[in-house]
Amino acid sequence: MAKYVTLLWLFFSPVYICAAPIKYIDNTDSVDKHGVYFISLLKLALEKSKSQYGDFETQGVPVTMQQHRLFKSIDSGLIDLMWTVTSTQREQEALAIRIPLLKGLIGHRVFVIKKDREPEFKQISSLVQLSVLSAIQSHDWPDVAILENAGLKVEKFNSHSSMYKLLANNNVDYFPRSLLEVVEEMERNADDTLMINPHHMLVYPSAIYFFVSKKNTALAQRIEYGLNAAIKDGSFDQHFYSYSGHAKALKGLTLRNRTVFRIDNPLMPESTPIQNKSLWLDIERIPD
């Protein structure tokens, strides 16, 4: 009888549920260089929850796929977890852990433009003027609907790697990128004809969350527990600010002297913890 009870305890305990490797897409060698940050943050959360939930193992799956396929991969069990921008539809498809992994700065967008067009962009002082020009985004990014809802023109393409080339070839006018992504991307692309527009920033509420299958509530609880523990003891902030790409962006970009266009995000779920100021970082609170 004692042996039977022990087996039942092992079966239903969080340690047992999380004992299998936690799988995620890992294409940091090719497409998603920023993924290094999210993978290490995941491991931090799992480590912070170790005393409560036990040991863990992670496994990167070296596959490249578009965002809409990632949700199908979670549902099918190919992966257990992903990180991406939230939306009402996405939170219906998978279970969101509602802690913004980039403190909301994924919705702080600066523009990559052609250097020879900088004087033209400098004259822009309104969204109406900006709406005459065409931005470029991936067809399955939630940002497309956000920008179009604000009256901005958006050209949609499939391949992220080709977007800088399309901009350089004058197929579009500007490429809005998160201020946390843009510096490293520009370094990798190394195109001398492009620059980060120093005059403007587009700001809208947005968040990147970890998502898991709706059937995997145990994993969601563990990660949420670990992230909250990291926020409480300061290791979340330490990880966020020490990541090289973030440090380069926050120190290298002049943010406070820009014309800021604030727009709505019609895709943002009502359940978003906007009122919890400890989870978000506004440009006015970015350390010098």
Please provide a brief summary of the model.
This protein is an alpha/beta fold and 288 residues long. The chain has helices at 2-12, 14-17, 35-48, 50-53, 67-76, 88-93, 118-122, 127-130, 143-149, 163-168, 182-189, 217-233, 235-242, 244-252; strands at 22-25, 58-61, 81-85, 95-97, 108-114, 134-138, 153-157, 175-178, 194-196, 200-203, 208-212, 259-262. Strands 5, 8, 9, 10 and 12 form a five-stranded mixed beta sheet that branches.
Kindly describe this structure:
With 288 residues, the protein is α/β, with parallel strands linked by helices. It has two domains: 2-104 and 207-253 and 268-282, D-Maltodextrin-Binding Protein, domain 2; 106-203, D-Maltodextrin-Binding Protein, domain 2, CATH 3.40.190. The protein contains 14 helices and twelve strands. It has helices at residues 2-12, 14-17, 35-48, 50-53, 67-76, 88-93, 118-122, 127-130, 143-149, 163-168, 182-189, 217-233, 235-242, 244-252; strands spanning 22-25, 58-61, 81-85, 95-97, 108-114, 134-138, 153-157, 175-178, 194-196, 200-203, 208-212, 259-262. Strands 5, 8, 9, 10 and 12 form a five-stranded mixed β-sheet that branches. It has a three-stranded antiparallel β-sheet with strand order 3-11-4, sandwiched between helices. Strands 1-2 form a two-stranded parallel ribbon. Helix 9 links the parallel strand 6 and strand 7 (153-157). 35% of the residues are buried. Mean pLDDT is 88; it is low at 1-18.
